[in-house]
Amino acid sequence: MNNFLSQHAHEQLDHEMVMIEVNLDDCSSEVLAYTMDQLLAAGANDVYYTSIYMKKNRPAYKLSVLTSPTKQQELEEIIFKETTSFGLRFFPVSCHRLGREFYKAKTQWGEVTVKIGIYQGERIKFSPEFEECRALAEKHNLPLQLIYDEAKSIAISQNK
Amino acid sequence: MNNFLSQHAHEQLDHEMVMIEVNLDDCSSEVLAYTMDQLLAAGANDVYYTSIYMKKNRPAYKLSVLTSPTKQQELEEIIFKETTSFGLRFFPVSCHRLGREFYKAKTQWGEVTVKIGIYQGERIKFSPEFEECRALAEKHNLPLQLIYDEAKSIAISQNK
Amino acid sequence: MNNFLSQHAHEQLDHEMVMIEVNLDDCSSEVLAYTMDQLLAAGANDVYYTSIYMKKNRPAYKLSVLTSPTKQQELEEIIFKETTSFGLRFFPVSCHRLGREFYKAKTQWGEVTVKIGIYQGERIKFSPEFEECRALAEKHNLPLQLIYDEAKSIAISQNK
Amino acid sequence: MNNFLSQHAHEQLDHEMVMIEVNLDDCSSEVLAYTMDQLLAAGANDVYYTSIYMKKNRPAYKLSVLTSPTKQQELEEIIFKETTSFGLRFFPVSCHRLGREFYKAKTQWGEVTVKIGIYQGERIKFSPEFEECRALAEKHNLPLQLIYDEAKSIAISQNK
Amino acid sequence: MNNFLSQHAHEQLDHEMVMIEVNLDDCSSEVLAYTMDQLLAAGANDVYYTSIYMKKNRPAYKLSVLTSPTKQQELEEIIFKETTSFGLRFFPVSCHRLGREFYKAKTQWGEVTVKIGIYQGERIKFSPEFEECRALAEKHNLPLQLIYDEAKSIAISQNK
Amino acid sequence: MNNFLSQHAHEQLDHEMVMIEVNLDDCSSEVLAYTMDQLLAAGANDVYYTSIYMKKNRPAYKLSVLTSPTKQQELEEIIFKETTSFGLRFFPVSCHRLGREFYKAKTQWGEVTVKIGIYQGERIKFSPEFEECRALAEKHNLPLQLIYDEAKSIAISQNK
């Protein structure tokens, strides 16, 4: 199994993360997408939107940003500068992350990296890198799912 | 049962209705709510929004407007003037509506109109007018659901 | 009122609950439904999904699991084994629950249990057990709402 | 390849289908779920809900029912009897369905049926029956995804 | 710049806020809208709904209420009395609010108040009051967006 | 006004468009995003997803593809090859598009193209090209909204 490359092979428990949330009701979708890009580029761990229903019949979006405390101020500044928000809220969260390894699966169309999740010392999750599958699918003009399935299957077999 | 007031007691089938749809991705929620009001005031039969996912990572809203063909042009003009849309689409739909009657239910807190739905000659649906329940709830400082339930229960009993 | 059966008649305030959340973007809906079943069977207090918008144009789902701390590890293991997730987050929440009683309402079609909510010593909520209404609706070939409404109405009357 | 069982091996184009839609704003979720069951049991081809935003600040659900014209009246009756709706709408749709075959994949944990989709004579889609995977997962206490992946992989290999 | 009216011109950081959440699966949309009104009238800082997917195939809504601790008990009472909920949960959140000023923009159609957001001493956000724009739009029979854009543009120019 | 560039300056009404829809319940979000890209690259007029609730407790997505009939077959092939779908549906729709012009707005930070919508001969809609605003925002390290607002304001002024 020496094709398996360890990144941080042990699980992590991080009690010092922060979730920032803000409800946006007068912001166009273009700006929502742009703000997501800015936040990720500045180092947010995760960014996502949820469709919500606000007062005065307004369909709106909740922006959620997961971050370490060291990045919090910079991300809040982006939110205040790019969106229409006059206020945001935040609360502490803990994160539990699997250990990770990477395996190079040699499919008949080319090599695909497979990300592997390790839970209590056991390899339990095999996830081919989507962008690499995409590149091969476009190069060989094949359905992407075909390449994804073969890469996953090879990594699982190697692990037995 | 002479408290029952017939509106159009027989079911209707209308094959000449139109559904207008438009995807809005750069329109604030305030404008969405305002446009809904304008469309209803101008005679749309129904207006609603659905949260959708567009290209370029944009969460957006689909506006749906149900109308008779005679109102279609006026409603399209409102959509084009008030929203950010450069194009809309529409298709024909048929509508099947129940016959309707109204009954005055005398609750212990005051009278509430109950809308009754008639399917193939039979009273099958009893729906207290929400705004009247709300007015009584606020006047008597009671949970609205209590008044709603009693009005419905009285109308059902009268029908037996 | 001796038909009322007390379960835990007083309200409860529990400050030791945990909310686990995880964003899933490469998991089929079949697996989402299956995971929900597994989590509930293992003792989660509540499980629900929310549709979210992630980066790279990916519509996805957030899984939320409410649990006591004693079950947290077991539920995390299910999440890691059944879904595609490489990480989850959690935070403490407090729960406020109404006192509960159960009343057997004798409708004309059969008996239906009504769950009653008690707030500061007062019975304020009457909720017929849905599955029992469903069984009677199917047995007598009647609209379910009819049976539900009668059971609720009987329980409310008995309480006066 | 004599393990492949043909159902209707050729693609179908059916221009006579009907989509029924109805907006429900005063109907509990329990009733929504029950109505879906009733509609499927009565022969609807597909049933689903979409979250929508209606006037007067009301979050609501749109019910969509795909059906052949021969079932339309029966399904409309269920909608009118079980839900709070006073009106529904419908419009004609065409359906394009792949040809289908079924293959029995012999996994190390037991047999799983794989549904295969045929487009213009070519097998392009391999979909293990979820309930069979579920049964094996529960019997052997294994992650469901593991069994699903192996069954799919076997069917794809056999097809080469 | 003496047209700018300061409200609380400095940013605020409030660590003592509370988020109340409750999942509602047997509550009509009319009641959801009414409950939102009651909560806002009683002093909730923010109220919104999110569409969620619960067990037993039930599409439902999560109610979220942001409040100061002094209002928490009163708001919980409204939730328990008006909705079908038997339990709710809550957790502490911190709020970060921009400083605010108000500017009277003199458009060609009339005066519009513009709310201004101040981040670290700098005016960064200009938001015309929607209801005032709406009144002018209806009075002059013009697209609302036109008036909104002019008011915003005037306030930005004055700030330079 | 010779800076205004006419594309197809008159409104269009096209009665020959097709809306393709397909419900996807066992397809990962990565594949959903990839399929959207493939469909747009192949010439679909519009592609979007809607979150829906299917039977057996499955949160899923509806894919909607707006197309001319000449592209329909090619787009159906992409759907069948890339997604997990065994069937799709389609129905005819009419499209009403505004006339379009383009104006080069000279902002203090650089030129931005503004798309203008023409309804019955009148310029009623001014929409700055988002990607151009984005490029200037990144170049000058400014909030994107600032540049967007100025470009829009210049185009509106020129039109008077």
TrEMBL record, chains A, B, C, D, E, F:
Annotated keywords: Nickel
Signal peptide positions (record): none
Pfam family, one: Ni_insertion
PANTHER family per record: NICKEL INSERTION PROTEIN-RELATED, PYRIDINIUM-3,5-BISTHIOCARBOXYLIC ACID MONONUCLEOTIDE NICKEL INSERTION PROTEIN
Name of protein: LarC family nickel insertion protein
